[in-house]
Sequence to fold (114 residues):
Amino acid sequence: MTPQQIINKLENSMLALQNGNIQLKTLGINKAKAERDYKVALNKKILQLKADKYPATLIMEVSRGDEEVAQLRLQRDIAESSYFVCLDALNNLRLEIETLRSMLTWLRAEYKNS
Fold:
């Protein structure tokens, strides 16, 4: 790989990292909203079941099994997974950038020794 190719890859990786940071913020907001929606729906269901005189030992299980609450929990889990996948992708980009920088440093040293 030539130094120019490495620099081009480095620039592309840095641009991808910047875009990934923006995406991570969006995914973080989506994750927080999904968590809020799930907890609000779960708490409403718990209060409803308490008002309906369900046994205390069954309330949590029945409330989590409610179709709407389960769907919101699924959305929360998907949002959380997407957030962490993006975070791992950003870490991979950082590692790629460091590798490319090391390659440039090595090539510079090779050219000086030639």
